[in-house]
Amino acid sequence: MIKFPDDFKGILKNAKKVAILTGAGISAESGVPTFRGEGGIWNKFKPEELATVDAFMSNPKLVWEWYLWRRQIMSEVGPNPAHYALVDMESLYDDFSLITQNVDGLHRMAGSKNIYEVHGNISLNKCLDCSRPYDGEINIDDGELPQCQCGGKIRPDVVWFGEMLPADIINKAFAASERAELFFSIGTSALVHPAASLPVTAKQNGAYLVEVNLDPTPLSDYADYTIHGPAGEIMPEIVEKIAELKEDSK
Ligand code: OAD
User: Does the global pTM surpass 0.90?
Assistant: First the structure.
C-alpha cells in the first residue's frame, strides 16, 4: 500500500499538465532485462561498450548479437500492468506526454498515444553511412553482415552513446517537461543524459516530481516524493487513486 500524503493527492487531483519519463525498469516485469544491475551473459559488457559507433565499427557482429538477443526477448514479451496504468492515466489528464528511453515499443503496444521514443525503436534498422531505412532480414549466422545499397553497414535504428537524439522528439520532450505541473520518473537509473535532465528541468520549472523505482537513484533525494517498489504494482495503485480523487471532486 502506497501512502498518499496531502500534497501528492492535491497535485494528482488538480494537475492539468503531466509528463512521464520511463526507463528499462518499467519493462523489467514484462521480462525485458534492464541495462544496469542484475546478472546475465551480457552483464560483463557495459551498455557504453556496446551501444556506440566505435563498438559497432570494431566488432559489428558482437553488437548485432547483443541487439538480436534483445530483439528476440522483446518479440516474446508484452506490456505489464505499469504500461497499462499509463494508458489509463493518459485518459485522466488533458495534457499528457509519455517520454520513454525504452526501445521495446511496449508503451505503444499497450495503447499509449502521446509517446516520445527518445532513444529510437529496436525493431527498425538503418544504414550507418546514409541513414536509409533497411527492412531486410538480419542474419549474422553465416558471418555476413547486412549491407545497404550504398555499401554502408546496416545498424539498429537506435540512439547510441555519443550520438544526437532525434531533435524534434527530444525538443518536444523538453517542452513537455518544462510545462508539466506533475512529472513521474519511472524505472530509470537517471544516469544517461539528456533524458536524465528531463525530471530536473521539470522540477526547476515548478513541477511536483515523483520517482518510482525499486532502488534509490541520484534523483531520489531531489524528488518531491519517492516511492520504492515495482512499477507494475505501484502505477496501477496510483492511477486508481487519481480516478477516485477526480470522481470525488465531481
Ligand atoms: P537502467 O538499466 O540503467 O536502469 C533501470 C532502473 O530501473 C534501475 O534504477 C532499477 O532500479 C529500476 N527497476 C528495475 N526493475 C524495476 C521495477 N520492476 N520497477 C521499478 N523500477 C525498476 O535503465 P535506463 O535508466 O532505462 O540507452 O537506462 C538508460 C539508458 O541507458 C537506456 O535507454 C539505454 C542505456 O544505455 C541507450 O541505449 C542509448
Answer: yes
